[in-house]
Amino acid sequence: MNNQSFKAIATTIIIEAGKPLHYREITRIATERGILQTVGKTPWATMNAQLSMDIVNNGESSTFYRAQPGFFGLKSLGLTKQATITGKARIIKHTVTDSLNTKQKGDIAEARVAELLTLYGDEGLSCYRPISDDEGIDIIAKRREKLEVAYIQVKSSYGYKDRGFVSSVREKQIINKERMIMVFVYFDLSQGDLFDQVFCIPAPDFLRLTANEDKKPGERVFTVGLHHPDKSKYAEFMIEKRELANRIIEIMDKL
């Protein structure tokens, strides 16, 4: 890439547009103009990650804001498409129960991932849950009206913003094939929902990235902090959660 950062490029393009733009559109414009040059296969994912993490890390001080899922605007241009509440509003704080066991947490995360795959994506995906998950397959995703499938293992972490993604995977449950995809999600207890970014990693890539780690025998460990997940060794596999279906379809297209 040239000397301009993803954030600097996005700033220029959003200013010219005068309105919030989707990160794919920002990336497309930047690539066509030649101001974004990267060897990465999914520069749009990096663009989304850079802008998202600027908001996460800088909070109210960030120059960007999320106008709606996937769309980023500049605060200097004014906020648009934001909900306005008139009158007095009573704020109710809901807390997540602390009585959930490990299986319940896993089931909730898998259900949320199945929802994302079913609801979003340029093409439809149908999701099926195996009767038995002893082979490490939590969700079978099938392209609608086709027989193409992907086998998904969902690994979840639960906590607040001070923790992050921490999951261990048994090696015997990892099939070294592109069709098996590891999806790592973080359930933010302060929000009661999945963190906006997830990691979608084909099994061969996950095995490659964790090959030389000195961990517990028979296990591979995935660890990424929430403050700078875009700077981890898994950064190229980080996507906005509503892009999960599209990413899985892209992987299936290459098989």
Largest sheet: 7 strands, mixed
Which sequence of SSEs, written as H and E, runs from N to C? HEHHEEHEEEEEEEHEEH
CA gyration radius, whole angstroms: 19 Å
Count of the separate structural domains: 2
What's the pLDDT, averaged over the residues? 84
The unreliable regions are 82-92
User: If you consult CATH, what is the topology of the largest domain?
Assistant: Trna Endonuclease, Chain: A, domain 1
Shape designation: globular
Beginning-to-end CA distance, first to last residue = 29 Å
CATH uppermost class of the largest domain: Alpha Beta
User: What structural class do the secondary elements suggest?
Assistant: alpha+beta
Strand content: 15-25%
Q: Kindly state the number of beta strands.
A: 12
* Helix run count: 6
CATH architecture of the largest domain: 3-Layer(aba) Sandwich
Helix content: 25-40%
Detail the topology: elements first, then pairings.
Blueprint: H1 6-17, E1 21-22, H2 23-33, H3 43-58, E2 64-68, E3 71-74, H4 102-119, E4 125-128, E5 139-143, E6 149-159, E7 165-170, E8 180-188, E9 193-194, E10 197-202, H5 203-209, E11 219-224, E12 238-240, H6 244-253
Parallel strand pairs: 6-8
Antiparallel strand pairs: 1-3, 2-3, 4-5, 5-6, 7-11, 8-9, 8-10, 10-12
